[in-house]
Write a structure and sequence with these properties.
This protein is of the alpha/beta class. Helix content is about 50%, strand content about 20%. It folds into three domains: about 1-65, Alpha-Beta Plaits; about 75-155; about 165-365, P-loop containing nucleotide triphosphate hydrolases (Rossmann fold). The strands form two sheets. It has an eight-stranded mixed β-sheet with strand order 6-5-7-4-8-9-10-11, sandwiched between helices. It has a three-stranded antiparallel β-sheet with strand order 1-3-2. Strand 9, helix 13 (about 320-330) and strand 10 (about 335-340) form a beta-alpha-beta unit. Bound molecules: guanosine-5'-triphosphate and magnesium ion. Guanosine-5'-triphosphate (GTP) binds near residues 179, 255 and 340. Guanosine-5'-triphosphate binds next to helix 8.
Length: about 375
């Protein structure tokens, strides 16, 4: 394997460069932030790739050695370029015609406006409506609304709770979204509330917030379960070794604003440490998430390799469109919903019906 370093202003962008060059199977070795000679902070992300792939993508060697294709001539290249331009022009004309048809259709316009008002993004709606041109769905409002709801239902993914496997779950997310409270609820669920009791331990990686250790330790004490606060990757690996026999290990992390590069880099180190156990990284996202923040949250947290989504603060809003939008765009399966402040009661296994019922209620209110 060869290590290659990518540099950008934030870790996700540096990682994206690596993915663009090598595809999504790149192995992340490390990520750190450095002050360069020009005084600017930059992130260096190191990835490992097989030597042959490195040679091919960096120097085109494999192609040179293995290819017997003749070089295309200038004339061929010009022709290919022209055909490409024509195709693009045709595509844009087709797009224009579709937009016009939809704009002239009152039912499509009305339903689109309704879904947009409830938080569903325009590009997703446009794509759905364009695929319906020429069908009777565009002539009937009720049918069209049902169709779009079905499409949303189909696009939502669930992460089923598997009670047969032991699990390590790390909860990450913006500040104050309910990570620690949800960990306490999950701990109670696994330790006491299921048919069979599981051996549960809590690990705290939040060395930033004053009182963070005490907050989790307090829950651990009430529930009489193991609790370890660690600082640094070495200590984390040691703790995980000590907890090797536990069925469920829940890891709490520091809340991070999408602009907290230092904390992200630290968390990447934890995520990539060699635990000898699969770890599920779960983003805790509040149902109240703002549309403007969604993209930044996804951009930064997806860098940690998100396996699932816990939706918190379900009780704090009646409007779920923005949240649905997040899932339509980013395709991360939902595992649990947090529906209030009460530990352990206000937690439920994620349910499409529960979420969609609320969204439909909101749609019917107009
Ligand atoms: N209404 C409501 N409040 C919640 C929910 N989950 C957590 N909270 C409250 O949100 C506040 C923050 O919860 P924490 O669990 O400390 O959040 P956190 O993500 O661990 O916060 P940081 O560690 O500071 O990033 C507390 O007052 C919780 O009681 C929920 O589902 N609904
Ligand atoms: Mg916390």
């Amino acid at each position: 394997m060869i290590n290659e370093t990518f540099v950008a202003s934030d870790p996700k962008s540096a990682y994206d460069q690596a993915v663009e060059k090598y595809g999504s199977d790149v192995k992340l070795v490390s990520a750190k932030q450095l002050k360069y000679d020009d005084g600017k902070l930059r992130c260096e992300v190191v990835i490992a790739v097989p030597k042959a792939l490195f040679m091919e993508r960096s120097f085109g060697l494999a192609e040179e050695l293995g290819s017997s294709k003749e070089e295309s001539t200038d004339a061929e290249a010009a022709l290919t370029g022209e055909i490409g331009a024509l195709k693009a022009e045709l595509e844009s004309m087709k797009q224009g015609i579709k937009e016009e048809i939809l704009e002239q259709n009152d039912i499509a316009s009305e339903v689109k406006a309704l879904f947009m008002k409830k938080g569903i993004a325009e590009p997703w709606l446009d794509a759905q409506l364009a695929s319906l041109i020429g069908t009777e769905l565009l002539d009937d409002k009720t049918l069209l609304v049902s169709y779009l709801l079905e499409e949303i239902d189909e696009a939502l993914k669930l992460k089923e709770e598997d009670l047969t496997l032991s699990k390590v779950m790390m909860l990450v997310g913006p500040t104050g979204v309910g990570k620690t409270t949800t960990i306490a609820k999950l701990a109670a669920r696994y330790a006491y509330l299921l048919d069979q009791p599981y051996r549960v331990a809590l690990v705290n990686l939040d060395s930033y917030k004053v009182g963070a250790v005490e907050q989790l330790a307090h829950y651990a004490q009430i529930m009489q379960i193991e609790h370890i606060a660690v600082n640094g990757v070495e200590e984390f690996m040691g703790a995980m070794q000590r907890l090797a026999d536990y069925d469920v290990v829940l890891i709490d992390t520091a809340g991070m604003s999408p602009y907290d590069t230092q904390k992200f880099i630290k968390t990447v180190e934890y995520v990539n440490s060699d635990l000898h156990r699969a770890m599920e990284v779960t983003l805790v996202l509040p149902a109240t998430v703002k549309y403007e923040d969604m993209e930044d949250i996804h951009k930064n947290f997806s860098f940690l390799g998100l396996d699932s989504l816990i939706i918190s603060k379900f009780d704090e809003t009646k409007h779920f469109g923005t949240l649905l939008n997040f899932m339509l765009l980013y395709d991360i399966p939902m595992s649990y919903f947090s529906t209030g402040q009460e530990v352990p009661d206000d937690l439920m296994v994620a349910s499409k019906e529960y979420l969609l019922e609320r969204f439909i209620g909101d749609i019917h209110e107009g």
